[in-house]
Amino acid sequence: MQYLRDTRTELKHVAWPTQQQTTVFTILVIVISIALAFYIGFFDFVFTQALERGIEWHVGNTVSPSETFPVFDTGTTNTTTPTADFSVTGGQN
Predict the structure, then answer these.
(1) Nearest to 21 by CA among 13, 32, 29
(2) Rounded to an integer, what is the distance from CA 6 to the centroid of its chain?
(3) What gap in Å lies between CA 54 and CA 48, rounded to an integer?
(4) Residue spans of alpha helices (H) in 61-76
(5) pTM of the prediction?
(6) By the 8 A CB rule, do 75 and 90 touch?
(7) Rg of the chain over CA atoms, in angstroms?
(8) Are 59 and 93 a contacting pair, CB within 8 Å?
(9) What is the C-alpha to C-alpha distance for residues 41 and 56, in angstroms, rounded to an integer?
(10) Which residues have C-beta within 8 Å of that of residue 7, sequence separation ≥ 6?
(11) Which position has the higher pLDDT, 45 or 62?
């Protein structure tokens, strides 16, 4: 009980912001949050593009597995060879 009384006494000494200060600070937080979102989004876009181009370059300069390992016919009707898709779009080219 003493803790609650002390807390109540301390809260009376707090300098609470005015309505105008609260409005200005709220708008400031929203503006800074939007600016930060654009800043982080920009670098996310740049690094994603760089990573995609790096993967495309690497895949274009590597030897395909069928060139290094012989492919044997197993007699199944599925004659397609599975391929790796490293695109960010989920494989829809």
Answers:
(1) 29
(2) 45
(3) 10
(4) 65-68
(5) 0.50
(6) no
(7) 30
(8) no
(9) 22
(10) none
(11) 45
What 3-state class would DSSP assign to 92?
A: coil
pLDDT > 70 fraction of the chain, expressed in percent and rounded: 66
Compute the half-sphere exposure of residue 54: CA atoms within 13 Å on the CB side of its CA: 6
Sign of the dihedral through C-alpha 58, 63, 69, 70: positive
Distance CA 93, CA 85 (A): 9
Q: Which amino acid is at 21?
A: Q
- Which pLDDT score, from 0 to 100, does residue 59 have? 80
Single-letter amino acid, residue 86: F
Q: How far apart are CA 88 and CA 14, in angstroms?
A: 52
Q: What is the pLDDT of residue 72?
A: 61
Matching residue, tokens 């982080």: 40
Residue recorded with tokens 């876009």: 45
E strands, 1-93, in order:
none
Tell me how far apart the alpha carbons of residues 56 and 89 are, in angstroms, rounded to a whole number: 14
- Kindly report the average pLDDT of the chain as a whole number: 82
Q: Which two tokens stand for residue 74?
A: 């197993």
